[in-house]
Design brief:
Helix content: 10-25%
Structural class: alpha+beta
Radius of gyration: 14 Å
Shape: globular
Strand order of the largest sheet: 1-2-3-4-6-5
Distance between the termini: 33 Å
Number of strands: 6
Order of helices and strands: HEEEHEHEE
Largest sheet: 6 strands, mixed
Number of helices: 3
């Protein structure tokens, strides 16, 4: 995205331990391939991170992580946010039946897109 001031890029072990998110990882042959994190409220999953190691792009890792989280809780909706220039992430969410709720311009270099998916 070309924006290096994103808060997640400044995370430390301590900040991750204190963030109150639930984390799940996807491993293949003992290699960490990706992670997903979220906060769960009674009726909604608020997804905070969906990260895939670059050597595992386009192998279905993100899909497996999202499917896992979607199927583990009975919730009414899932919400996510990503940079508006993050075309692969946006296409991924649209493909998974999310719809864009809003865009918020943070500064001249960063605009965030918010998505939501209602569960049937």
């Amino acid at each position: 995205m070309g924006y290096y001031n994103l808060p997640p890029l400044k995370d430390t072990i301590h900040s991750l331990q204190q963030c109150e998110e639930t984390f799940f990882a996807y491993y293949f042959q003992e290699e960490l391939c990706g992670i997903i994190s979220f906060k769960l409220d009674r009726t909604e999953i608020d997804s905070h991170r969906l990260i895939v190691h670059p050597t595992h792009f386009r192998k279905g890792v993100a899909q497996k992580l999202l499917d896992f989280v979607e199927n583990m809780h009975e919730v009414k909706s899932i919400r996510v946010m990503t940079g508006s220039k993050n075309t692969p992430a946006i296409n991924f969410y649209l493909k998974n039946d999310f719809y864009k709720v809003q865009e918020v311009k943070i500064d001249e270099y960063l605009t965030l897109s918010y998505f939501r998916k209602y569960m049937i």
